[in-house]
Amino acid sequence: MKRPSTDPTAIYRYRDGIYAVDLVTAAIVEFDFFTWLDSHPATLTEICRHFAFKERPVDVMLTLFLANSWVQKNEDVFSVTRLGKEHLVAGTPWCIEPYYSSLKDRPICQDFIKVLKTGQPANWSGTQGQGDWHDEMGKDDFAKYFTAAMDSRGVVLGGALAERLLEKTEIGLGKRVLDIGGGSGVYASALVDVFPDLTATVFEKPPVDQVTRQYLSQRGHGDRVSIKPGDMFKDAFPTGYDIHLFSNVLHDWNVKDVKHLLTNSAETMAAGGWLIVHEAFLNEDKSGPLPVAEYSTILMHSTQGRCYGTSEMRSFIEGAGFSRVDHFETIADRSVFVARR
Length: 341
What we know:
By secondary structure, the protein is α/β, with parallel strands linked by helices. It has helices spanning 9-16, 20-30, 33-39, 44-51, 55-67, 82-88, 97-101, 107-118, 133-136, 140-168, 186-194, 208-219, 255-268, 290-302, 310-319, and strands at residues 71-74, 77-80, 176-180, 199-204, 225-229, 243-247, 274-279, 323-329, 335-340. It has 2 domains: 12-120, Winged helix-like DNA-binding domain superfamily/Winged helix DNA-binding domain (Arc Repressor Mutant, subunit A, Orthogonal Bundle), CATH 1.10.10; 140-340, Rossmann fold, CATH 3.40.50. Helix 11 (186-194) links the parallel strand 3 and strand 4.
């Protein structure tokens, strides 16, 4: 696949962070969150208890506020910063709450109120009359629509990933890639373009696998990238592969599911094989960077996952049985973990 001559990061950020304003609005207007926290510095658990919130969405919300320097964290206790006190706490001359009130009826803002309370994902893009993203992917029309969207993103991200892997690793010594939950196969295609000795298989469930077949045919990769239909949570991973790729997959799932997928990878991968985990990661203490904290809000809204911190993902990977874990940046706020079995 041809690489662009320019960096589209700023363009990606508008789309990635589009839901952040709605989460901020819900916190300020619906819950008056900063006024309460200013009087009651609290741990994540205490915040959840007071507001009857669930942990996953609160984790995302607090990360967003940390990245904006509206709250600070001392050990496990969150409190409001001077910036937050002046502009986000009720009763100050500069409180911005009335300005945000005009946004409170936006559908995504209303979704966040429910997600904070239930922990369950909302409908994709706030669409009424549909299930959440996980349910909708089982329908032909939505599978085509969503896969097309992720493919357009992956054309840039996949090329950058492959080139960085070529620079930083020896994965070219491998022979067979299993692209788990690989969607259109755009990332598998990028790898075989850069590593001429690799072949790949996209492990994807119906009806997405049929969409995958069309994309691979269009790109002319049918001879080196095959398709194996299957559900990564219900079916055993195909064996005989010495590279496993999870690209923009794990962030859609909760901690339990992420650990399950990585453990299955370790148990079915050939000895000495490579694990590649590619997506947007928060920094080690989950205080930023801001673009990733903003991106995590759309994942929290529409999936069962969120963006994970680098320390979290490293612990998941090592806990599954991988070693020699390395991490480096690619493009557009994405980065990649590489480890050995």
